[in-house]
Design goal:
The chain has 11 helices and 11 strands. The protein is an alpha+beta fold. The longest helix has 21 residues, at 3-23.
């Protein structure tokens, strides 16, 4: 279109708009009238490339939703607890260090032994972490019941509490670790090995598939469900009262219906987590291994929540 023709069309358009505006009711919004007038007289044609790009983006988004959530964790698994169906998996058979997720197996072995859970156990030099040199608020000489030790082990991942439980097991630590490995074999966890009860040793390894079996088994113990999802707890140590909180933000925030959980971290394992929860009334187990940070680990769980909700909608 030439400049002369465009000028004539613009003049005619302006005159038409003036007439349209004068004819509009007094309460009409002038901007709305202008917008409607311009749409009718100067329609904007969508760029074919833009249309194609939008269509392609929608297609990729749909494909991504079908394939599964985009996770930072190196290994992951999502299972429907009601049917046993694997909804999503990523490197689910890769053998990896599992850090403090080991404590779920430790808890089952302790409870299977039917020990006196009200018996007091003293923290000794044997509980000092000589693998990773981690610290603890349970000073040497602290005396707690097995119930208290198990609570701190599952809720706050207290390594000295877990070690003391294993050390005072009938037959000592060797018998305790042997029982952990025997329990793993009985559950069909064929790619799982334990060398000590806390998970500080990077040789404690498993797979996401095996850990889904661990979660299913551990969830059969009411004490494990209760202790792992407890928000806070306090004990009296040699240095005085000590207050502990849950290591999992999903539990602390209270937005998830968590039935069982355990977090884990050592450098070799990254940030890991197992969760049994109800998402939109769908019971699922989530296993996340070797996420780069605490933030990405929780973000992965939230991505899974959104993905599960979208699949059901």
């Amino acid at each position: 279109m030439s400049i002369t023709k465009f000028s004539k069309k613009l003049s005619a358009a302006c005159m038409g708009f003036a007439l349209a505006l004068s004819a509009a009711p007094a309460a009409a919004d002038d901007l709305d009238v202008l917008g409607q007038f311009l749409e009718q007289n100067f329609p904007v044609q969508q760029d074919p490339l833009e249309k194609l790009a939008i269509s392609k983006a929608e297609q990729l988004e749909a494909q991504a939703q079908m394939a599964g959530p985009l996770l930072s964790s190196q290994s992951a698994l999502i299972m429907n607890n009601r049917t046993g169906e694997i909804l999503y998996q990523k490197n689910a058979n890769r053998v990896m260090p599992i850090a403090s997720i080991s404590k779920l197996m430790s808890a089952m072995v302790i409870l299977d032994a039917k020990l006196d859970m009200n018996e007091r156990v003293s923290i000794t030099d044997a509980e000092i972490d000589r693998i990773k040199r981690t610290s603890s608020r349970l000073g040497i000489g602290s005396s707690l019941t097995r119930n208290e030790l198990l609570h701190l082990s599952l809720m706050s991942s207290e390594n000295r509490a877990t070690h003391a439980l294993g050390r005072t097991y009938p037959g000592g630590m060797g018998a305790f670790v042997a029982a952990m490995n025997a329990k793993a074999r009985s559950l069909g966890m064929n790619n799982t090995r334990f060398y000590e009860p806390t998970g500080l040793d990077s040789r404690n390894v498993s797979t996401a598939h095996d850990l889904s079996r661990l979660v299913t088994a551990a969830a059969q113990y009411p004490v494990i469900r209760k202790n792992s999802t407890s928000n806070y707890g306090s004990v009296y140590a040699v240095s005085g009262p000590q207050r502990y909180k849950n290591t999992n933000p999903l539990v602390r925030e209270g937005s998830w219906k968590v039935e069982l959980q355990k977090t884990g971290y050592i450098r070799e394992a990254g940030r890991s987590m197992v969760v049994k929860a109800n998402v939109q009334n769908q019971p699922i187990t989530i296993v996340l291994l070797n996420s780069p940070s605490s933030t990405t680990r929780v973000n992965d769980a939230r991505k899974i929540e959104s993905w599960v909700i979208q699949r059901r909608s």
